[in-house]
Write a structure and sequence with these properties.
The complex is a heterodimer of chains A (about 220) and B (about 550). Chain A is an all-alpha fold. Helices cover about 75% and strands about 0% of the residues of chain A. Chain B contains 15 helices and no strands. The chains are: A mainly alpha (about 220), B mainly alpha (about 550). Chain A: Belongs to the cytochrome c oxidase subunit 3 family.
Amino acid sequence: MNASVPDAAVQQQFDDAPQQKDAAVLGMWAFIATEVLFFGVLFAAYVVCRFRFPLAFVAGSARLDFPMGTAETAILLTSGCLSAIALRQIQLDKARQSAVLLLVTALLGIAFLVLHGMEYHDEFKEGLIPGIRYLENGPGAHEMELFFSLYYVTTGFHSLHVLIGVVLLLIMAARTWRGTFGAHYHTPIEITGLYWSLVDIVWIFAYPAFYLVGGAG
Amino acid sequence: MNAAVTSADAESMGSGYLVEGGRTLWSWLSTRDHKRIGILYAVAITTFFFMGGVAATLIRLNLIYPDGRMLSAETYNKTFTFHGVVMVWFFLIPSIPATLGNFLLPLMIGARDMAFPRLNLFSWYLYMVGGLFTVAALLLGGVDTGWTFYTPYSTMFSNSNVILVVVGVFVVGFSSILTGLNLIVTTHMMRAPGMHWYRLPLFVWAMYATSVVMMLATPVLAMTLSLIGLERLAGVGIFDPALGGDPILFQHFFWFYSHPAVYIMILPAMGVVSELICNGVHRKIFGYKFMAWSMLSIAFIGFLVWGHHMFVAGQSMYAGIVFSILSFVVAVPSAIKVFNWLTTLHKGTIDFHAPMIYALGFIGLFTLGGMTGLFLAAVALDVNLTDTYFVVAHFHYIMVGGSVMAYLGGIHYWWPKVTGRMYSETIARIAAVLMFVGFNLTFFPQYILGYEGMPRRYHQYLPQFQDLNILSSIGACVLAISYLMPLFYLGHSLFRGEAAGPNPWQATGLEWTTSSPPPEHNFHETPVVTHGPYEYCD
């Protein structure tokens, strides 16, 4: 019923544009609350396992590629900053700059995924992937496998979120370039930016939890 | 408020949202109208209810004889697993929020639709996809883990259909999260002019509290079930003791969702019953603010009590004591609600129409279920009663005696609004009374069985328990008849019922000010609210 209504228009259930915008933003915040609990399970499991096997977590962390993880962190945080500037630009009605910034944000997201893929590839060669190719033996190997289990599930779900974010950012960049958004209407950019901040923040917790255990580096 | 919109008195099956927007099947399957989506849910959950009911019937038939001659141990396990999974995730969780909540919440707050109509439809499709996975697992041979999927049995021993069911529940979980999100944003953003928070009907408060639980608890279940799937598929060993993982950790995560899930089932029922009781005595609710805040407190405290499912699972004694005390605390807001309902009724002139009979049945059964919950919250008693039929009886009193009674009461009460037609009051009263009798006959003997030590989840039992089991199975037959009856007389009313008019119960509330069935966008003009709900006395 609403499909043919142009994006900028107010859908029939809302009284006016501010109400529609507030609803969209609140909806995204509520969704972020859900996501926090979703990832929260993994961090809770992390705390339990690390409390039980502190040494295995230090040993596992030492096997991760610290410079690579740090580069990924820098890339992701930069992209988060750019998405915030993109929002500012569209608020100032500078659609072209905003579109370019959104595109660069998406490209940085892709760079993050590529680097992380390279990490996964190296770990596969080293035999550090539980259940698929895990070649560690000897004392502490099982406990370290637990570390890698958590690492893969957490970073795997996080990467999935990055991928979804990249797709959203590319769509937003294209629509902004075509002139769909401007100072008067840019809610989709705002809520995409909110989502992208969630992706950032999950990584801000995951990075130290996995790469910085026991002064690794 | 009652005086508004009486002109459109030619309401019948062929009017309002039921025809506006198209009469084709596709117009229903692609609708964004919250009222139509509510009906899509109602049809779907009714189907699942009877599927789960067939499983329950098999269980009760098998338990007529102590030697379990009808179902083998393995088939029995698969039957109660199917019963549990379907009834919890595909009936109880979506029952009131996704049908009545969807249909009524925008009407009650004076909105034209939910905040996110497309997301609302998407939630329904997620529900159906989750249902397909679960039914597929049944057709491929079933799952025998119980609805709780305890590790390491579910990850290391049971068959691979576990993955299908886990995916099904994961998907339906997101349906529930998105429904909760939609209800929350709608309540915050879409209220009509003058409808401030303390003018909301208690049903809306109940939906709000439920939605908070849905949004904060369900993702925990989603991730936990993902970990089970990944453990089976890829050997991720967070719950695997062989790797140093912890099966008890699974129980913590599972109950962190599944205890609040009980409140997803009972809070909406409390909301429905509050509406039904006020209308049944035509009085203002006693202690409105206490009623509203007690629902939010139940939602909040409900997050802190999950450990009472694990008193014998090896958690520390001190954790057990803390969880026990917190579980007693939940009883306080619940008791506030029961006392306020009773005070609302006190010295009132009670109209015993069918919805009211369901509501009164709810109060009795919920109170009994809640009181026996206190037995189970006491560690010393629970050690004796856990894993017996006492527990089975307790949670069926809450979920069936509580939630299902309220759901059916709500269906009857708002039926004229949904369809524009009345049902046969006499036969509806008979069904409601029969349900109360059948329910008690089925489940009260199980309290005694549990107290005497009959364990749950076995297809056989000691011969001394046979008499009470037969009584329980007879009760189940009565209950089955009382569940089938509404299908017929409500179905009949769809085509032959007399026109209801906008407000057949002389009720307050915005949903009764519009025509029955309501027009596509609910109100011909946006209502303006000038006073609180339940202005019956003035």
